[in-house]
Amino acid sequence: MYQPRFFKAQELVPPSVYKKMGDKSLSLIDDRVLMTLDQLRLKMGLCTINNWCFGGNFEQSGLRTDECKVFSPTSQHAFGRAMDCKFRDHTAEQVRQFVINNKEMFPYITFIESDVTWFHFDVRNGERITLWSPKTGESKIV
Ligand SMILES: [Zn+2]
After folding, report:
1. Neighbouring residues of the ion ligand 1, judged by CB less than 5 Å
2. What is the mean pLDDT of residues 98-121?
């Protein structure tokens, strides 16, 4: 089992899941996502996914449950294959450019979103790296 170096289970799942499964919640997150998170943290510095365990408002930025207002059963978040990352020292656009320019450092990322203020990545079965804009609906391989 891959144990993330920089993230606790609470940061990756909502409170209801953590309450039920504790640290075993990590078994719900794709290990490629966990390895990618550690790599992103090493290269780009401090990174927030969920912060409910530190008194913050983010609960559904990692594994997503139907308690979420924007829940979709076909979202990669519902399968533990997606994360929405907020970096302290970099904008989402800076992180997107870094990942696109250094693909070999992030071998598991297949999909990222543009036009959003967070860095969404996922590891879906697809051609890499697909850059998709939720604003325009357009996607391209980068
Ligand atoms: Zn997302």
Report:
1. 84, 120
2. 98
